[in-house]
Write a structure and sequence with these properties.
318 residues; Rossmann fold; seven-stranded parallel beta sheet; 7 strands
Length: 318
């Protein structure tokens, strides 16, 4: 495998053997990853390709897309990757994404919904309604159209994985995402978790559906850090040490966590997990394990999740 570092993408060589993953773990699988021309999405496609899968890189940045295909093909084998320009808010673009993917690889086994606009980070009172409409168009509309294009064939073959790259439920200081960003993510999260119940048990459908939070994932030096809703500079917050790491979580490490989840879709079907959950399950060799939290958070049951809107906040006081 070639170590491809001479590129404007500002990436490091990728080698995930230290995580326990195998190079052919996803051999024969085809993955479409929306929003995969930078940061988390770029880590996803590189990790999936490293594990033997073919990948469809998707986004609006054609220059970055072409370079990512070059890098992935050099790191793995010629023809491993392709780029399709796609604005997920446009039905024609999403249909073209599906057509080109299937024309090239014959099928799509894995759909990773990762597209979002980080600039949609404003507060409720300080944002135009158009920001909310844009957030919903990318997350809600884009995710649902992609599901319509790819999931029926997965169900027919009884083989597939659908993941949504989500975030926190609402803006809560000192968390990263603002109101508009969280609102868009929330609608897509609801759609995907409902889809998990609609397809039914994994043992019958063969299709695993789950959400993953890539919290704290950032390439050091990334400059596109949105300003927090309260005006704080988020660049320091975004690059602080994450539990188990000496700084932010590298995108390729997050990609390794995703690959593990794809391989264990039967176990995570119908769940919302964080990349830290994936790391714990796979026995990830943390570079700074002393900083890991000592006790896990309690998981919500499906019924609790359904009724979460009535359980928020402190309730009656006084």
């Amino acid at each position: 495998m070639a170590a491809v570092i001479d590129t404007f993408l500002d990436i490091d060589p990728i080698d995930l053997e230290y995580t326990g993953l195998k190079r052919d773990a996803l051999k024969g699988e085809v993955a479409v990853v929306t929003g995969s021309t930078s940061n988390v999405g770029l880590g996803f496609v590189r990790a999936i390709a490293w594990a033997g899968g073919n990948v469809v890189v998707s986004g609006n940045n054609e220059k970055a897309g072409a370079e990512i295909v070059r890098v992935i093909d050099a790191e793995n084998a010629p023809g491993t990757a392709m780029f399709v320009r796609c604005d997920v808010t446009q039905e024609s673009d999403v249909k073209n994404l599906a057509k080109q993917s299937i024309d090239r690889f014959g099928k799509v086994d894995i759909l990773i919904n990762n597209a979002m606009d980080l600039s949609l980070n404003g507060p409720v009172l300080g944002s135009p309604v158009s920001d909310l409409e844009r957030a919903y168009a990318i997350s809600g509309r884009g995710v649902m159209m992609a599901i319509h294009e790819f999931v029926p064939a997965m169900l027919e073959r009884k083989h597939g994985v659908v993941m949504y790259s989500t975030t926190q439920f609402h803006y809560s200081p000192p968390m990263f995402g603002g109101a508009m960003y969280c609102a868009g993510k929330s609608v897509a999260t609801s759609i995907v978790m409902s889809l998990a119940n609609e397809v039914g048990p994994y043992e019958k459908s063969g299709v695993g559906v789950f959400c993953m939070i890539p919290a704290g994932v950032l390439k050091p030096g990334v400059s596109r850090i949105p300003v927090a809703p309260d005006g704080r500079d988020m660049s320091v917050h975004a690059t602080m040490g994450m539990p188990g790491f000496n700084g932010p979580i590298p995108p390729e490490a997050c990609g390794a966590g995703l690959v593990y989840c794809i391989l264990n879709a039967a176990k995570v079907h119908g769940s919302g997990i964080s990349v830290a959950d994936a790391f714990d399950a796979m026995g990830y060799p943390y570079p700074n394990p002393e900083t890991l939290p000592k006790s896990p958070m309690r998981r919500l049951t499906d019924n609790e999740l359904t009724l979460v809107f009535k359980n928020m906040g402190p309730g009656f006081r006084g």
